[in-house]
Each structure stands twice: as structure tokens, then as C-alpha cells.
Prior knowledge:
Elements: H1 4-16, E1 24-25, E2 29-30, H2 36-46, H3 51-58, H4 64-75
Antiparallel strand pairs: 1-2
Helix pairs in contact: 1-2, 3-4
Amino acid sequence: MSGEMLERVARAICIANDSEPDAPNGAAGLLWKLYAADALAAIEALREPTKGMLKEGAWVASSPLECWQAMIDEALK
């Protein structure tokens, strides 16, 4: 799997581990790529929303972006 969100999450995990995402890393290329499996697992875990996330997202009908952000905000509580 590849994609913008996967890379974004992998870079965030890399930074959270006090590493520079764009540092070279041998065969893997850039260091952030070592965190791609962790990023994929994190994104997959978010695929099934909690009851709280569904509740928060249900009242937001103005835009998909606002619904998504409300649900993620709930997940981060």
C-alpha cells in the first residue's frame, strides 16, 4: 500500500521517535519508509469507528471534512 496519508502518518511516527524522516536509510531509501508498516496498522485501526466517533460525526452534516475531523477529534480524546 502506498499513498499520501500512509506517508504522512509514517513521517509523523518517525518524528515522534525523534528521527528525521528524510534521512537516508540504505535499501529502504528514506527513514520514514521504515515506519510504513506501523502507519498502515494505525490507519487500519481507525477504519472501524468507535461509538463515540459515530456519535460525533452524526451531527456534522455540513461537509465530509468537518465530519471526518469531528470523528478524529473524538478518537484523540
